[in-house]
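Dear H.,

Thanks for agreeing to be a second pair of eyes. The structure we're designing against is below in token form, covering all 166 positions.
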């Protein structure tokens, strides 16, 4: 029922003669609280590195000719529980005790088969029914150029527009 209301309102707000596309991207939210649910390390584009905070996945539709966009769905990216650091033997003995030579422990997900890309694909699948019927294209940055998302895009009868990362 709710999805039908979104469809009706977006269809009324859009000019049927204009091109409408879907867009997906994430946004980083800085959080410093010690008990914030879902707080984890997420990539922060402005800083060019991962930082501790929250992440939301946003799916919007864009009317190309007018450059108007409507956010259809916002979902908090789940943090993946972490298990003990992976212990690796050093290649060469390191006798230095300086802070620069110490590396942070590498963490491994306790759910290695489920990735954040899986979360984004699920978000897309759950939101597809809210897209106007004229939407054929999903636009995303290079991070989304991954096989798991490609599979979801094809399954939803969309064409992907993006730049291959790397």
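And this is the sequence the design step returned. I haven't edited it by hand at all.
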């Amino acid at each position: 029922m709710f999805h039908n209301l979104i469809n009706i309102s977006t269809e009324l707000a859009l000019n049927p003669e204009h091109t409408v596309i879907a867009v997906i991207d994430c946004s980083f939210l800085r959080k410093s609280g010690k008990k914030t649910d879902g707080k984890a390390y997420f990539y922060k584009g402005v800083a060019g590195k991962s930082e501790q905070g929250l992440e939301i996945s946003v799916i919007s539709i864009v009317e190309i000719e007018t450059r108007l966009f409507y956010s259809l769905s916002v979902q908090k990216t789940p943090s993946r529980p972490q298990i003990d650091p992976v212990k690796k033997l050093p290649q060469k003995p390191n006798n230095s005790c300086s802070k620069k030579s110490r590396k942070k422990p590498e963490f491994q997900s306790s759910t290695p088969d489920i990735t954040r890309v899986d979360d984004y694909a699920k978000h897309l699948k759950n939101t597809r029914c809210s897209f106007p019927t004229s939407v054929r294209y999903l636009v995303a940055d290079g991070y989304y150029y991954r096989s798991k998302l490609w599979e979801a895009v094809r399954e939803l009868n969309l064409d992907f527009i993006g730049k291959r990362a790397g």
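Two observations from my side: The two ends are 42 Å apart (CA to CA). The beta strands are 20-30, 40-44, 49-63, 68-76, 137-139, 159-161.

Warmly,
E.
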